[in-house]
Amino acid sequence: MNIGDVADLSGLPAKTIRYYEDIGLVEPLRSSNGYRSFRQSDVHKLAFLGRARALGFTIEDCRSLLKLYADTDRASAEVKQIAEEHLDRIDSKIAELTEMRATLSHLVDACAGDHRPDCPILADLATEPNAGSISKASG
Amino acid sequence: MNIGDVADLSGLPAKTIRYYEDIGLVEPLRSSNGYRSFRQSDVHKLAFLGRARALGFTIEDCRSLLKLYADTDRASAEVKQIAEEHLDRIDSKIAELTEMRATLSHLVDACAGDHRPDCPILADLATEPNAGSISKASG
DNA sequence: TATTGACCTTCCAGTAACTGGAGACCCTAT
DNA sequence: ATAGGGTCTCCAGTTACTGGAAGGTCAATA
């Protein structure tokens, strides 16, 4: 299979597939004309990668997961650990964004957003933290 | 003021402050010895940048916000628009992460995480989307 | 005076995970 | 022969820094 077909099947751009080969995540064969020649197992692997990436796993996580997937004897605990660490990262990120959202949302609500120049958003950004009024609490 | 003092005052690493000068966000003077010489207004600007970045505004957002801050005649609507667009980006990101979290959390719960090799996490990643069972719903 | 040590300078490279584009080759159909 | 589409490699750019090397400056000390 050529790279275009695989791109269609896996949903990954051809560019990305070439990149994954560069960094050693897949190793397609080569046809006599130099074109990459993908086996079913390569397509399977790429689809696996696409789904793992969609779940936000890093490339290095994906590399580990692929290894674990290939090793039918490994303990499921190993996989679960990677997933749980990732889950923690996701939770941290959500918490961080939620806090940002709260602060920013307060500011946006406080801003008239009309033709006048007075703007609580800029005022807050320009205010020393210890003198701030709308800024998030210190704990 | 030298860069070290400004770093302490603004909470930004010296490296970052130099970078901000590189990309034109601040323009400190120079002492005769070649050291950067920061005015109060520079410190103020850097603190502004630090707070805007902490709220997740991009550097380009920050550039716009600084311009708007300097322009005392602009309408607050201009600022509010930038903030609202950013708020939308934050909301999208939160939604995306929340969905990831849900899927991943299901998988983690379903995985025994013991010495046995059977692992629903890998099983799901390896499964064609149309044949998946735990994967997120299609709507 | 010489020397330490902390500070400052510039420049280069690397990070994560791609993405875009140039220039050239291959294949099929007309 | 030619047109088109697909493919190849290689290089550069993206975001917002961060680390490190090699070297200049300054204040204090032996």
UniProtKB/TrEMBL annotation, chains A, B:
Residues 1-68 form the HTH merR-type domain. Pfam families: MerR (PF00376), MerR-DNA-bind (PF09278). It comes from the Bacteria. PROSITE patterns: HTH_MERR_2. Keywords: Cytoplasm, DNA-binding, Transcription, Transcription regulation. It is found in: Cytoplasm. This is Cu(I)-responsive transcriptional regulator. It comes from Sedimentitalea todarodis.
